Amino acid sequence: MFGALIRIDSVTKRYPDGTVAVDRLSLEIPDRSITVLVGPSGCGKTTTLRMINRMVEPSEGTILIDGKDITQQPVNTLRRSMGYVIQNAGLFQHRTIVDNIATVPRMLGWGKEKARERARELMGRVGLDASLAKRYPYQLSGGQQQRVGVARALAADPPVLLMDEPFSAVDPIVRKGLQDELLRIQDELGKTIVFVTHDIDEAVKLGTMVAVMRTGGKLAQFAPPAELLSDPADAFVEDFLGADRGIRRLSFFPSSGLELLTSPIVAVDSTAEQIAARATEDVPYLLVTDLEGRPLGWGEPDELTAGEIAPERLLPYGRPFTAGSGTLRAALDCAVLSPTGWAVAVDGDGRATGVVSQQTIAEAIRGAHAEGRTDAKAAR
Amino acid sequence: MSGFFDIPSDLQHSWLGLVGLHLREALLPVLAGLVVALPLAQLCVRFRWLYPPVLWVTTVLYAIPSLAFFVVLIDYTGQTELTVMIPLTVYTLVVLVPAIVDGVRSVPQETLAAATAMGFGPVRRYVQVQLPIAVPAIVAGLRVATVSSISLVSVGTLIGNQGALGNLLNDATIYNRPELAWNAVITMAVLAILADAALVLVRVLLTPWMPSGTRRRKTGARPEPAAPALEDAAR
Question: Within 13 Å of residue A62, how many CA atoms lie on the same side as its CB?
């Protein structure tokens, strides 16, 4: 089932002691996309999320899903039509992985075998090995548990997925893997995902739309991530985005427009003539590659001796960027990391396809800003 | 010369008969205590303010000597097994209620939130999530209650040979046969150890989901079995 449109209409949550967690919030959450609620702690982002499945009831205002008021159906029916993923996964420690995932289908009256079959299918979808089916949660790593959490939320194929800081408790490498996996799954399934996080980088990476909230439960800005980075609505949003938003904004510009030089590349077994021919006035260094074309490092033309180039004496080339799918941010990062100031572009197999200087990248950045050309897809 | 297992005829039971009687008088109260403690503990979890007074009452009841109970009860239930089992049932509550409350409360917040978000109503959540996860803590409580109950049954000898194996202690003095006292003490100790082992086995069978290395640690706050045993000795 594809995602549904969620409309939050001037919703306020006031607690009996007078605290206002969410203050007249209105949001139109587009269907079949990821909308991220981000903000500092106490900004009401989790409260907002929990109002969508009525774990918190609004004091004022209404929430509509595909035009229908969510209070118009029994609360547990509503909840079973929404997946929910939580920090630390919140798995049932007394049930096997496959039975954890099958929980909602079982409650919806599916037969045991059908529910388990569905659970196994989802394990594959979220990248879990089938051999884990009969294990218990304690036998899984944090990242694997979180994958089970996502599979469990998807089990009954709900149109809406609510995710409450789901990846906050795992280490950065695992988190990146889970984020990439979520984007991949979303490409396949097209759910309406509402994602809560306090991590602006995560918000920018995952969100089709990002709602920045401020303490007191007010909406500060609601915009696509590229717009957020280029035009923060006020000082609070700018401050929340952090000091290097200019650099991060480069994630939204593809590097495919960069003009790559292929001349200053020599193979490790090159002859003296080849080295001499490749050395030009404008390029002070030559990139040496192995016999398959993978970069080894930079050398000055004078120091490269034909036939006996020693890879260990070459200058490091930093971290190459991928020519087709990389972003200007990756290219710039590569140029900054490289002692020569030149960035190395590689293809999908890691073979060098060209080099580009900091100056060229800087010009591309200026050009991109001038055109205001943003491509959200490039961020991924 | 009478043997170790020759039971004086005034007890009207063989040794095995006494063992059976002893187990019945000790285990029925534990079972009854569990039946009372489960809803009581659930009320304490639901209404937090109720827990301290309930705990206070169970502790005070535990402090009442069984003799005092017998004096009151004997007018109603006479010199019967029931008179012995009622105070024993009451005593188990001091262990079982906190064990169940702690066990149910030890269920992680995110597990409860996830259950609610998936559309579990309160009853389904209690039966399918909270109780199963509380099983290790509940069994830990049952172990203490059971061992304590097995040792306490013997006071029943004071109200006309209702103490099962405990009656042997009395007969040991009457007939000047110290081996009967040894028999009583050793048999009760063996019964306690066997019952305890049986409960451990039940726990292991019920909780395949527990990491084996941390089974003891994860059961949470649990009274040390030695403490009530010492109190029983003093009683």
Answer: 9
How high is the pLDDT of residue A115? Answer: 95
The CATH number linked to B115 is 1.10.3720.10
Residue B218 lies in a domain: no
Which residues neighbour A137 within 8 Å (Cβ) at sequence distance 6 or greater? Answer: A89, A91, A92, A93, A97, A100, A145, A148, B209
Chain A: residue nearest B117 by CA? A79
* H or E stretch at B101: helix B81-105
Contact list, B116 vs chain A (CB under 8 Å): 55, 79
Query: Do residues B203 and B146 touch, judged by C-beta distance below 8 A?
Result: no
Q: How many domains does chain B have?
A: 1
* Residue B1 included in any domain: no
* Domain that includes residue B90, residue range: 14-208+224-234
User: Does B112 reside within a domain?
Assistant: yes
B122 and chain A in contact, CB less than 8 A: no
Give the residue with greater pLDDT, B87 vs A271: B87
In the predicted structure, residue A295 carries a pLDDT above the cut 60: yes
Q: What is the ipTM of this complex?
A: 0.77
Q: Which two tokens stand for residue B229?
A: 């045993």
As a whole number, mean pLDDT of residues B131-157 equals: 93
CA angle A142, A143, A144 (to 5 degrees): 95
Q: Which phi-psi region, left, alpha or beta, contains residue A6 (left: φ > 0; alpha: ψ -120 to 50)?
A: beta
Per-residue pLDDT at B2:
67
B194-220 as b/e: b if 16+ CB within 10 A: ebbeebeeebeeebebbeeeeeeeebe
B5 occurs within a structural domain: no
The predicted pLDDT at position A56 comes to 94
Q: Is the CB of residue A168 less than 8 Å away from at least one CB of chain B?
A: no
Task: Kindly report the pTM of this predicted structure.
Answer: 0.79
Q: Which residues of B touch A104 (CB under 8 A)?
A: 118-119
Q: Do residue A86 and residue B132 have CB atoms under 8 angstroms apart? A: no
- Residues of A in Cβ contact (< 8 Å) with B220: none
pLDDT given for residue A110 in this prediction = 94
- Interface probe for B, chosen from A94, A95, A145, A168 (most Cβ of B below 10 Å), is A94
Radius of gyration of chain B (CA): 20
Q: What is the 3-state secondary structure (H, E, C) of chain A?
A: CCCCCEEEEEEEEECCCCCEEEEEEEEEECCCCEEEEECCCCCCHHHHHHHHCCCCCCCEEEEEECCEEHHHCCHHHHHHCEEEEECCCCCCCCCCHHHHHCHHHHHCCCCHHHHHHHHHHHHHHCCCCHHHCCCCHHHCCHHHHHHHHHHHHHCCCCCEEEEECCCCCCCHHHHHHHHHHHHHHHHHHCCEEEEEECCHHHHHHHCCEEEEEECCCEEEEEECHHHHHHCCCCHHHHHHHCCCHHHHHHHHCEHHHCCCECCCEEECCCCHHHHHHHCCCCCCCEEEECCCCCEEEEECHHHCCCCCCCHHHCECCCCCEECCCCEHHHHHHHHHHCCCCEEEEECCCCCEEEEEEHHHHHHHHHHHHHHCCCCHHHHC
Q: What pLDDT sits at residue A1?
A: 60
CA pair distance A305, A274, nearest whole angstrom: 11
pLDDT tens digit sequence for A36-55: 999 999 899 999 999 999 99
